[in-house]
Design goal:
257 residues; 8 helices; 4-stranded antiparallel beta sheet; binds adenosine-5'-diphosphate; alpha/beta; globular; Rossmann fold
């Protein structure tokens, strides 16, 4: 599925947060959303999800204006994956993932055997089957983030929005979550993830967008960031960015000078 935001503006009361921002997420792309604290990343995600209404501009999914879609239609198209630290309940992993079926059910309708089977299949596909009876509170941050991804996949939406998916994870879990996201992109999902880690944008994303001073400061391919200018401006720090051959593939890495 393709997601487009065209000339979006948004303010909280008098405070302008986004000014004339346009982004396009083609089907099967994985876009990194960079921006300093307070630059409007979360606000943009909430606008794309329809939790907030833009003051100006249009958001379209496969060409259809999301303003003309019901909440349920939108939820069937876009899934939100919050930070793993936001989970504070003690449901089991399986029950949490079954909850992803909620938008497909009518009010008070209980999940069917097919819903349960869908959740079980998703747990298996992400290697989480052994965890199904555990309470989500008893999982590591990385496991919990994968369970939230599984819940979103069970929703069967084609577009996944991830809010800083690796922010509280150790290095190996960061790699695992990003590799899972890349696998989903290759399977055809359209992915947008916000991050404070420029290396994830350079290494894992097919596309990058940067928010700065309420505006879109950059939109393009990771390779276009190789000269360092955009990221140096963003983080007010001198950076060395280089494409390296790992032996298995090419990766772009970024270190401060
Ligand atoms: P980011 O996710 O990039 O850190 P946010 O979208 O959370 O940025 O916030 C952008 C700006 O909007 C910040 O200045 C923040 O304080 C403000 N803001 C965020 N949410 C609200 C809200 N509900 N009411 C008023 N101001 C808000």
């Amino acid at each position: 599925m393709k997601l487009e935001a065209e000339r979006i503006s948004f303010s909280y009361g008098e405070m302008k947060v986004l000014d004339d921002v346009s982004i396009t997420l083609p089907e099967g792309s994985m876009t990194a959303l960079l921006g300093r604290n307070g630059s409007g990343k979360t606000t943009l995600l909430r606008l794309l999800l329809g939790f907030l209404k833009p003051k100006n501009g249009t958001i379209r999914i496969d060409g259809k204006d999301t303003g003309d879609m019901t909440d349920r239609e939108r939820a069937m198209a876009i899934a939100y994956i919050p930070q793993s630290t936001s989970i504070i309940y003690s449901y089991t992993v399986l029950d949490t993932v079954i909850m992803g079926r909620a938008p497909a059910l009518s009010l008070f309708q209980r999940p069917s055997e097919a819903d349960r089977a869908k959740a079980e299949e998703t747990l298996k596909s992400l290697g989480l089957w052994e965890l199904r009876k555990r309470s989500v509170n008893a999982l590591s941050g990385g496991e919990r983030q994968l369970v939230l991804i599984a819940r979103a996949l069970t929703q069967e939406a084609g577009i996944l929005l991830l809010d800083e998916p690796t922010s509280s994870l150790d290095y190996s879990n960061q790699l695992l979550v990003m590799a899972t996201a890349e696998k989903l992109r290759k399977a055809g999902y359209t992915i947008l993830f916000s991050t404070h880690n420029p290396e994830q944008a350079l290494m894992n994303a097919t596309d990058v967008v940067v928010l700065s001073s309420h505006k879109l400061a950059f939109s393009g391919k990771p390779e276009e960031l190789l000269d360092g200018k955009v990221l140096e401006n963003l983080y007010s720090t001198q950076l060395h960015i280089e494409k390296i051959d790992t032996g298995l593939n090419h990766r772009i890495v970024c270190v401060p000078r």
